[in-house]
Amino acid sequence: MMRICQSLANAGFDIQLIGRELKNSPALTACPYQQKRLKCFFHKGKAFYLEYNIRLLFFLLFKSADCICAIDLDTILPCLLVSKLKGIKRVYDAHEYFSQQKEIISRPSIYKIWHWIEKKTIPAFKQGYTVSQSIAEAFEKNYGVHYTVIRNLPLKKNNANTLPRENFLLYQGAVNVARGLEFLIPAMKAIDAPLHIYGDGNFMHETIALIKENDLSEKLLLMGKHLPKELDAITQRAKIGINLVENIGLNQYYSLANKFFDYIQFETPQISMNFPEYKRINDQYEVAILLDELNETSIATAIQLLLNDSNLYERLKSNCTLAKKYLNWEEEEKILIQFYKQLLG
């Protein structure tokens, strides 16, 4: 969101980004756009969603604007109501296929609520954009809206690939359920290289247990969270990047993880999934080995192939050099700015 707001502010739009304040929220930094954090008593569960939506509703009611942009389904109701009451334009920014997340579709009662909200609200947002072609096609089929595709690409890394490669595998990002860690960790028993995990999440306790269970404490290193600049230096030193996603829910199947493009920017060949969006890009540029199945054997086989086949490795690395010229935010933000210029002038 900071990247989107930065681009729009640089293009001359008057932007305010609204979020929520947590106990451990870092101080806001100076930006060329306004920022507002809403304070809540509740921080999880139904009580949080209800409180935050009510607070957001009243904040927007007394805020002057030409357009309101709802970010994902959990902010869409107050944005829809206020835009109708004030007669102003509204936009839906779908960072994911919200109702198709694993943690939602695996809980039938919760799914019914979010799916009902989705069916009632998205058709009312005729203007919008989302992060992948597959999600845009699903929205058009299910709700009759034609959304622009604006992918969440990283900024161009002009000085990437200046550090020597080291013989370690890199997993970066959220250590969450449905990221294939229960298959990746035991697969590492067959790999003659360490795996460095940078990040934290709701699967960390299970990750620690799996490392102990498979006796891999010396080969799998939990490195914790790092600042983006620090992670940049780490990514360009890594031998191979890991980007695994379970095929559970359309949100997973249609995903385009940020790390997929980060690996490309740092010319790091990777192991990823043979899902529609990854295949679409890999067919054009060939920057990764794509897995048809997510299991220990397929992961170990792919990693060993990249470690041992120097010709394949160098080809993927060279293809990343070409792909990163086009798969970056400097190119993608042109679509974003054009979208809002056509909408608002």
DSSP strand content: 15-25%
- What is the CATH T-level topology of the largest domain? Rossmann fold
Rg over C-alpha atoms, rounded to the nearest angstrom: 21 Å
SSE-based structural type:
alpha/beta
Shape: globular
Measure the end-to-end span.
21 Å
**Which strand order do you get reading across the main beta sheet?**
9-8-7-10-11-12
Task: Count every beta strand, where a strand is a DSSP E run of 2 or more residues.
Answer: 12
Name of the level-1 CATH class of the largest domain = Alpha Beta
The major pleated sheet works out as: 6 strands, parallel
Percent helix range: 40-55%
What's the CATH architecture name of the largest domain? 3-Layer(aba) Sandwich
The helix count comes to 15
Order of helices and strands: HEEHEHEHHEHEEHEHEHEHHEHEHHH
Nearest-integer average pLDDT = 95
Structure write-up:
This protein is α/β, with parallel strands linked by helices. It has 2 domains: 168 residues, Glycogen Phosphorylase B (Rossmann fold, 3-Layer(aba) Sandwich); 155 residues, Rossmann fold, CATH 3.40.50. Helices cover 46% and strands 15% of the residues. It contains 15 helices and 12 strands. The strands form 3 sheets. It has a 6-stranded parallel beta sheet with strand order 9-8-7-10-11-12, with helices on both faces. Strands 3-4-5-6 form a 4-stranded parallel beta sheet. Strands 1-2 form a two-stranded parallel ribbon. The longest helix has 17 residues. The radius of gyration is 21 Å and the shape is globular.
